[in-house]
């Protein structure tokens, strides 16, 4: 048992007070289906981490050297066995926190007075295990403090988590201790989601935990969740591809596809959904005592059946004594059930889950005004815009050779390699364009780094040249796929088109509502929506963008943009607002639906139609919308998806800007398609 055991020389700190406030319900978390496509390594620059050579033998290095260089051992401190013997009172049984199938964990106190946990690592632990346990530097993921390796055993040293694990508080706490209240459970759910989102999306090497459960979520002195025990984890070097491995994990938490040996980040999403159900019900997902009842069924099926019958209150932990708001619990139940869908493609990402819970938790604390800034700085810890030398970028692009991704009258974009990772380097064609460079750099800093918006990695500003270093999008622009210019020549499926529409909408919604300044893109079109290795949409090219204060409804400015995508009020008077982007987004949707450029659609329109939008509306009202759909979408034509996309496009391109939806509302519409 983790909580309550002690090292006699240092008493455990007192429990902190726990706050309680009502929660305003949040919208359902919806599943984002990631379409399959070419995959490559994610862009995690080597200046963030340094991977060790595969032939490096950590154990031999430790045994042959007394003085240990931190650089050679993943930044971990080397402890002598004697230090750990003293700290744990010779590994006394009274200091055992956990007895598990993979070894024991002891509580200890180092000479400096700090409390630690000393874990006896399984015998076949390798350098990869050591790297995994040291690489994560996020507050919601435990990081090994040090190690000790001898010829007989391997020990890892972690900071001590004074409040033990979540499982203890749900099922094993002493009667003298108060139960976890609902707000604290929400806080724990959010912290665990952030930790997993970091491992999946931000960590220098993508990690799948593979054993997400209440006993592997620890609690610090402030009841902040800390994800622990990466002993079953897997590195993912080829993002987007499933790994085939032996089945690992805990019964009741293992995703169905794992039984076939398929391992991906969606396995963790399933495990997290089961963990949410643990938080709500306080029950074990696999309980032999419960299974002894002949009328009992699978834990998940039981929860789903009760939820369908709207009788979910009976499964809520009785220790809460009704101290919760119905909508709160129902929302978390919805998230849990979406996370535990049988189809892994139907589950959301942990980043999506974390965002939803962030909103819910701020509202639960009674905060009418909230910001994503803390979450952004937390989960994307360690990434910033770097100032590169011209020589470095010259070398990265082989002297700005003919490896050109795209070019126009403003700039040329080169493909390059920096520390072994692919990048895109945008070079402005003239010093007179410096204002565009400065604008894109400023927006890159404001938005750093957000999914669905291109990441500005760095820049180089010289009197004779201005360069931006961007994340390379390996699948090019949506425009290249629609016009057949992409090298693969494969058409986009309708599921991919729906996901692209959703990703672009999320990026624009963030620009409008979540950045410290309101940003209007002013040139939304298929050529400015890029696709990463998972065909996730990324909004790029901010040279026409306008920056406003959030209290401003509009600004009057010089008209910029692309013919066919410019909103009528903007074209007529220069009046620019977030609804300007909504119109352009609607035009982009028409490109996505029809497979044609807006300028080409204008020529297709009837002679009496002044805009392609009128042509689309006429076809839609006459029930001939199918005739507009791109016949290159393959045999998987999804009528419901195509029809809803046309509906949204028509709403977005209304002549009156006040009648167009906000981008945040469009995101919600697309999530429910």
UniProtKB/TrEMBL annotation:
Membrane topology summary: Single-pass type I membrane protein
One Pfam match: PK_Tyr_Ser-Thr
Catalytic activity: L-threonyl-[protein] + ATP = O-phospho-L-threonyl-[protein] + ADP + H(+); L-seryl-[protein] + ATP = O-phospho-L-seryl-[protein] + ADP + H(+)
Major place of residence: membrane
Keywords tagged on the record: ATP-binding, Cell membrane, Glycoprotein, Kinase, Leucine-rich repeat, Membrane, Nucleotide-binding, Receptor, Repeat, Serine/threonine-protein kinase, Signal, Transferase, Transmembrane, Transmembrane helix
Compartments where found: Cell membrane
InterPro entries: Kinase-like_dom_sf, LRR_Rcpt-Like_S/T_Kinase, Prot_kinase_dom, Ser-Thr/Tyr_kinase_cat_dom, Ser/Thr_kinase_AS
Annotated Protein kinase domain residues: 91-361, 399-673
EC annotation from Swiss-Prot or TrEMBL: 2.7.11.1
Alphabetized SUPFAM superfamilies for the sequence: Protein kinase-like (PK-like)
GO biological process: defense response to oomycetes
GO MF, one annotated term: ATP binding
One Gene Ontology term, aspect cellular component: plasma membrane
Superkingdom of source: Eukaryota
Family the UniProt entry places it in: Belongs to the protein kinase superfamily. Ser/Thr protein kinase family.
Protein name: non-specific serine/threonine protein kinase
